[in-house]
Design goal:
The chain is α+β, with helices and mostly antiparallel strands. It has two domains: 249 residues, 4-Layer Sandwich (Glutamine Phosphoribosylpyrophosphate, subunit 1, domain 1); 190 residues, Rossmann fold. The protein has 18 helices and 25 strands. It has a seven-stranded antiparallel β-sheet with strand order 3-2-4-1-10-9-11. Strands 5-6-7-8-12-13 form a six-stranded antiparallel β-sheet. The chain has a four-stranded parallel β-sheet with strand order 17-20-21-22, with helices on both faces. Helix 11 crosses helix 12 and helix 13 packs parallel to helix 15. The protein starts with a helix and ends in a 9-residue tail after the last strand. The relative contact order is 0.12.
């Protein structure tokens, strides 16, 4: 059982951010932007807005539509020209309303609302330090640590307090800060999580985790927020500064964003997600061919790769599995029985496509493997003659400490199992994972520009002596003295 002292830090969440400045319909557009980012977080949602003097905030548990119900009057109460929003994933350890974001606080410089995508691996150390000096925390979220850093008197007096605060943070973070008169956006020096800038037809600037949110409000993509950059939106327009020297640190973009998290019509890290996944599928067909009658995807994130596999192999593509869009993503669900029930409700089988056929099933990833085995069992029951499973990322053997809720190392299917043992566990006729080199070769940036920790065990931001990501007292964090001034 996890020590309750550290259970609040068991969350490794993937979230969605949206912010807009200078639009009389800022709150409504934030709602639509968050709705398009719903795939990034379905547990909680929130919007904070400002009239230039005062910030108001509303958050709640559930999807965007559930939190902001029609007729509730929330939009009218929040109606202001500046707004930021957040959708959130988490695990059971921090599935609490108090952890919903944006997180609104007040300190000596006034109000601030913070929305965060990522995970701070030094949050526990910072929190212990501040609590030892009398700080009182209201949430169990690592994001609240940032607020206490902002409020520290020796930080407030710095020439650029926000830049100074960001140099204290280690891990993955894309951040939106709403002050009464401006929005400030920032990415960690490695650019692990995506964050882009857009502009509406009326000239209002937007920040968003993915470009699909820009499309939702008919905004044009301008560029990405650069790693280590702070971008400010205020009445004077868009301004930029860096809190680390540009080019000093090699990026470590989370390539799992391309493999699984991001929406197909988004462009992140300079590349369209759908096209990238099709390249993964074509590469898999070369590395792991199969004698089969039909290629079917595990929708939705496996669909693009399946198209690529079918094109390369010249095996017909079809939809043997159909997805219910009323069930969220399942690998993050905290209980195994709940995950298996969600899989049965989420995926239906078109028996006419699979019965008596040799099928290639394309999945984006396998984490625990138990839900995948449930899918395979259902395909067998539907009459599939042979099942050849192909996976568009390498075997996941290591936990992620930078913002994805993979389970502990011991729970990962590929931990201490070879390919044949995995095949037998899943009860498939064959299995093939794309190679790490093959996956990286599909990306447009150099291989060393991506984080591969969950596959390779190489952590670009070092995490030493970890036994379990759920017991943070068992590992120590290396500090980056080359660019952090404590």
């Amino acid at each position: 059982m996890t020590d309750s002292r550290f259970s609040s830090y068991s969350a490794r969440e993937n979230c969605g951010l949206f912010g807009i400045f200078g639009d009389k319909e800022a709150v409504e557009n934030t709602y639509f932007g968050l709705h398009s980012l719903q795939h990034r977080g379905q547990e909680a949602a929130g919007i904070a807005s400002s009239n230039g003097e005062t910030i108001q905030c509303y958050t709640g548990m559930g999807t965007v539509r559930r939190v902001f119900r029609n007729g509730s009057g929330i939009f009218e109460k929040l109606s202001n020209p500046i707004a930021i929003g957040h959708v959130r994933y988490s695990t059971a350890g921090s599935s609490k309303a108090i952890n919903s974001q944006p997180l609104l606080a007040e300190y000596s410089r006034g109000q601030v609302a913070v929305a965060h995508n990522g995970n701070l691996i030094n949050a526990r150390l910072l929190r212990d330090e501040y609590e030892a000096h009398g700080s009182i925390f209201k949430t169990t979220s690592d994001t609240e640590v940032i607020v206490h850093l902002l409020a520290k008197p020796t930080h407030v007096c710095k020439p650029d307090p926000l830049a100074h605060v960001l140099t204290h943070l280690q891990g993955a973070f894309s951040l939106l800060f709403l002050f009464s008169d401006r929005i400030e956006a920032a990415r960690d020096p490695y650019g692990i999580k995506p964050l882009c800038i857009g502009q509406t037809k009326k000239g209002a600037y937007i920040f968003a985790s993915e470009t699909c949110a820009l499309d939702a409000v008919e905004a044009q993509f301008i560029r990405e927020v650069e790693p280590g950059e702070i971008v400010t939106l205020d009445k004077k327009g868009l301004h930029s500064r860096f809190y680390v020297t540009p080019g000093k640190i090699t990026p470590a973009h989370c390539i799992f964003e391309h493999v699984y998290f991001a929406k197909q019509n988004s462009t992140i890290f300079g590349e369209n997600v759908h096209e990238f996944r099709k390249k993964l599928g074509r590469r898999m067909a070369i590395e792991h061919p199969a004698n089969a009658d039909v290629v079917i995807p595990v929708p939705d994130s496996g669909t693009s790769a399946a198209i690529g596999y079918a094109e390369q192999s010249r095996i017909p593509f079809d939809m043997g599995l159909v997805r219910s869009h009323y069930i969220g993503r399942t690998f993050i669900s905290p209980e195994q029985k709940q995950r298996e029930l969600e899989v049965r409700l989420k995926l239906g089988i078109v028996k006419e496509v699979v019965a008596g056929k040799r099928i290639v099933v394309i999945d984006d990833s396998i984490v625990r493997g138990t839900t995948t085995r449930s899918k395979i069992r259902a395909l067998r029951q539907a009459g599939a003659k042979e099942i050849h499973l192909r996976v568009s990322c390498p075997p996941i053997r290591f936990p992620c400490f930078y913002g994805i809720d993979f389970p502990t190392k011991e729970e990962l299917l590929a931990n201490n199992r070879d390919i044949e043992q995995i095949r037998k566990f899943l009860v498939v006729d064959s299995i093939g994972y794309i190679s790490l080199e093959g996956m990286l070769g599909c990306a447009i940036k150099p291989p060393d520009n991506y984080c591969t920790a969950c596959w390779s065990g190489t952590y670009r931001i070092p995490v030493d002596v970890f036994v379990s990501k759920y017991s943070l007292e068992h590992y120590q964090l290396n500090m980056f003295e080359d660019f952090i001034e404590m």
